[in-house]
Design brief:
Elements: H1 4-7, E1 15-24, E2 30-33, H2 38-53, E3 60-63, E4 75-79, H3 85-94, E5 107-111, E6 115-119, H4 123-139, E7 145-153, E8 159-165, H5 174-186, E9 191-195, H6 217-229, E10 233-237, H7 245-248, H8 275-289, E11 294-296, H9 311-317, H10 319-336, E12 340-344, H11 362-366, E13 374-378, H12 387-395, E14 399-404, H13 415-425, H14 427-432, E15 436-440, H15 455-466, H16 473-485, H17 492-499, H18 502-505, H19 516-521, H20 535-544, H21 547-574, H22 582-605, H23 610-641, H24 647-671
Parallel strand pairs: 2-3, 2-4, 4-6, 8-9, 8-15, 9-10, 11-12, 12-13, 13-14, 14-15
Antiparallel strand pairs: 1-7, 5-6, 5-7
Helix pairs in contact: 2-4, 5-6, 8-10, 9-10, 13-15, 17-21, 21-22, 22-23, 23-24
């Protein structure tokens, strides 16, 4: 059985062999690298930073080719053995070599009682090997001894990344972006996709998003440079022709909408003479700023094309041909800048939109898409089969697969649901030879949630994208948590599970696609006349669950909330790293505490009698006292990481709920 320290590694290495003995991590260790190798120097600096943050004595960095300088000293030798002869000699002594099957990003890590070797043929491989060493040292900090082992590791999938939806309201400050990149690289993720829309200051159209937080071309240049040092590529995603509502909200561009009401207001009228001049400007701006070879253009959920102002053209040539024309024109725009187009595949995958009662353009339309376009397949929930991927590969398309963190319109991601999506879908990446896999955050537009909530699902994704098949969520949860917060902080996994299971407690609150968290937490109570719920809500609740069971579920929720809070208190005692991140989990529990009172208030509003009225008064007064502090806590957490303009609309959502509670209190007092 592998040593406990090896079990805590995330992502789990492909091959691990435990040997006898241990390496004592003490003061006086040197980490020797090739002189003048800037990439390796930056890599070892990240190890030093990681260890210092965890209270572990870092090694002394020594750039040398001279054997006398390392003789008799406890040592770590790292680099490319073809360039570092000290490392090559040590590998021969240990009978090690780098195998061709390990690829460019693979590495060998060998721990012996007297030295540690980290060898790879590329700077990225050296970096990843050193990240594994940093995790081993941190995991073994309590004993001070790293178990002797030989690790031979390499990624299962070439491109592994996260997508961050900046258009939904939360735009990071520069240091928070850098923290995200460092965290990604530590877990061996190498691609960051920025979903932009109006969250980028387009030089050609600065009016887009001018009243909101945006990243500038200068921000991107700095971010790209920093990410490159950590072997992370920054890739833009600007969606068209759908999901352009924030762009077309600019008064100078509103005439380009497909229609004036949703969903047409978010769709570009692709037949307007000015439509592609606009897109040439926007994609051109992105191509000039982002050096990535492939650019995502979205293209998803574009089924409203041809249903508004372009309806007459659609009647003449067919809606699918309007869409295909759009794909080919954008492909040509990107190609003119030397970029490759990545396009969402939901427009073609048979049956994809059947849950919404709509059809798409199908496989015959797909046959007309140029084969140099990368198809981006995405799915929510557990994926039982992916015959579309095989068919697309047979047609000659390259694929990217996007998984979901199950956070859309939720207060906290359903991590278990996200894990089922990841482990069921990524298996098809290897089968179809996908170029890459991306994990998307997709929080709701402008809602009171934080990207910081998304890291557990992202770390689990990192394991599966590197080492598919990885561990199940049940087996990976504790290692994921302990790799982040430090050994002994495993109880945080209980908190994360609880926060992600809200629907299990309040299934009757589901309304359309809105899960229980948001429509209860932010829906003003004044939507209910005092004394009874709206008929639609009351009938919905009556159809799904009786009042007695609703109360029992609420009691269970409060009990489990108390247990989760206790687990978090205990975790704070043992956590040795990223303790400031626990503040976000603590705030999520506070949100759930307010949510429990809001659920109870809504329930009591639907009941008759003096007992229910008295309970309602107690609940509302408790909420009225609690919410102001919750609002201020939210603002403090926002300001830690995010730019300022997005805070105000989110703060107003909390304050609307507080005003609603106060109005109910006033009405209740007036009736009494």
């Amino acid at each position: 059985m592998p040593h406990e320290a090896l079990n805590r590694l995330v992502p789990r290495p492909q091959e691990m062999r435990l040997t006898r003995g241990s390496f004592e991590w003490t003061e006086g260790i040197i980490l020797a690298i090739e002189p003048g190798n800037t990439a390796d120097h930056l890599a070892v600096q990240t190890v030093v930073e990681h260890l210092r943050k965890r209270g572990i004595v870092p090694p002394e960095i020594l750039a040398t080719r001279e054997e006398p300088q390392i003789l008799g000293r406890r040592q770590v030798l790292a680099g490319d053995p073809c360039r570092n002869w000290l490392l090559l000699k040590a590998m021969r002594e240990e009978g090690l070599e780098i195998l061709p099957s390990q690829g460019t990003d693979g590495y060998v890590l060998c721990v012996t009682p007297r030295r540690i070797l980290v060898a790879a043929i590329s700077p990225a491989g050296v970096y990843y090997g050193l990240q594994t060493l940093a995790q081993l040292a941190a995991s073994s900090a309590e004993s001070g001894r790293i178990p002797c082992a030989v690790i031979r590791d390499y990624p299962a999938i070439r491109q592994r990344g996260l997508s961050v939806d900046l258009s939904s309201g939360e735009v990071y400050r520069p240091e928070a972006f850098r923290q995200l990149i460092r965290r990604m690289a530590h877990y061996k993720l190498n691609t960051l996709v920025l979903y932009l829309e109006d969250a980028f200051l387009f030089p050609s159209h600065p009016e887009i998003g001018e009243r909101r937080d945006r990243i500038t071309p200068a921000d991107v240049e700095e971010l790209v440079s920093f990410a490159r040092e950590h072997h992370v590529e920054i890739v833009p995603c600007y969606d068209s022709p759908a999901h352009m509502g924030n762009t077309l909200r600019a008064p100078s561009l509103s005439h380009l909408r497909e229609g004036d009401s949703p969903p047409l207001a978010a769709m570009l009228n692709v037949t307007h003479p000015e439509a592609y001049a606009l897109l040439e400007d926007l994609y051109g701006d992105l191509c000039r700023v982002f050096p990535a070879a492939t650019h995502y253009v979205g293209g998803d959920e574009a089924l409203a094309i041809g249903e508004g102002r372009s309806a007459s053209a659609a009647a003449d040539v067919g809606r699918e041909n309007l869409y295909l024309r759009h794909v080919k024109l954008i492909r040509d725009i990107l190609g003119g800048h030397g970029k490759r187009m990545a396009l969402a595949a939901d427009a073609f995958e048979p049956g994809f939109h059947s849950a919404f009662g709509t059809d798409n353009f199908g496989m015959e339309a797909l046959r007309q898409v140029p084969r140099d376009v990368v198809l981006v397949s995405w799915h929510y929930g557990e994926v039982q089969g992916f015959s579309f991927g095989e068919a697309a590969r047979e047609m000659g398309f390259d694929l990217h697969l996007w998984t979901s963190n199950a956070a859309y319109e939720r207060l906290f991601p359903a991590v278990g649901e996200a894990a089922r999506n990841v482990q069921s879908f990524i298996q098809y990446a290897e089968r179809t030879g996908a170029l890459g896999v991306i994990h998307s955050d997709w929080n709701s537009p402008g809602e009171n949630s934080f990207f910081q909530y998304n890291w557990p699902a992202a770390a689990f994704f990192a394991e599966w994208s590197w080492s598919s098949p990885g561990r199940t969520w049940e087996n990976a949860a504790q290692p994921v948590v302990e790799s982040f917060y430090g050994p002994g902080a495993g109880r945080v996994s209980d908190v994360i599970r609880f926060l992600g299971q809200l629907q299990d407690y309040f299934p009757w609150a589901w309304s359309g696609l809105r899960p229980p968290g948001l429509n209860l937490f932010f829906g003003p109570l004044v939507a209910h006349r005092l004394g009874r719920a709206m008929a639609s809500v009351r009938s919905q609740a009556a159809q799904i669950i009786p009042p007695a069971e609703a109360e029992q579920r609420l009691a269970t929720f409060r009990h489990d909330l108390f247990a989760a809070r206790d687990s978090l208190i205990q975790a704070r005692i043992t956590a040795s790293a990223n303790t400031e991140h626990l503040d976000y989990l603590d705030f999520a529990l506070e949100q759930y505490e307010a949510l429990a009172d809001l659920v109870e208030a809504r329930h009591l509003l639907s009941l008759e009698g003096t007992v229910a009225r008295a309970r309602l008064g107690d609940t509302l007064r408790r909420l009225e006292a609690f919410l102001p502090g919750l609002i201020e806590r939210y603002c403090e957490l926002w300001e830690r990481t995010s730019m300022p303009l997005g805070l105000q609309p989110n703060r107003e959502r909390f304050e609307r709920t507080l005003r609603s509670v106060r109005e109910c209190c006033e009405r209740l007092c007036a009736r009494v």
